[in-house]
Amino acid sequence: AKIEIDTVIIQGQVTGNIVAKRRIEMHPPAVVKGDIVSPGLVVSEGAVFEGNCSMGREAGGRVFELAPSPVV
Fold it and tell me: Does residue 59 register a pLDDT over 90?
């Protein structure tokens, strides 16, 4: 299954990919098997996540280039 949502809080079992515009939260006894895309992610201790996670540009997050700072 593919789930597309704004924000999701998971406390059960999900098998499939999740795309969230804002945030994905996993709390025990959550078991998530699949790939996720979201700019915000919380995996609480005791929750299980098996898959790939993307939080970059394709997830709607902002990516900044850091300029090197001189070492003094």
Answer: no
